[in-house]
Amino acid sequence: MAVKVGGRHETETIVAISHHADRDYEFILQHDTCTKAAEHDPDSGGQFAGT
Fold it and tell me: What's CA 51's distance to the chain center, in Å?
């Protein structure tokens, strides 16, 4: 997994395996992104990158 954080934005690449009865499927999730919610947003979820 690779994670980059810049300001309010995070980008990550995840390499994973999905296990199924017949076989395992390897996949890559590239350029997944999230944006940190405003500090005053009471409906926002948890913050990322330990801030």
Answer: 15
Single-letter code of the amino acid located at 27 = F
> One-letter amino acid identity for 11?
T
> What is the rounded distance in angstroms from the CA atom of residue 35 to the CA atom of residue 46?
11
> How much is the average pLDDT of 44-48?
56
Go through the chain and tell me how many residues it has. 51
The neighbouring-strand residues paired with 11 are 4, 33
pTM: 0.43
Looking at 1-51, list the stretches that DSSP marks H as alpha helix, in order from N- to C-terminal side: none
Q: Report the phi/psi class of residue 50: left, alpha or beta, with left for phi > 0 and alpha for psi in -120 to 50.
A: left
Bridge partners, 3 (sequence order): 12
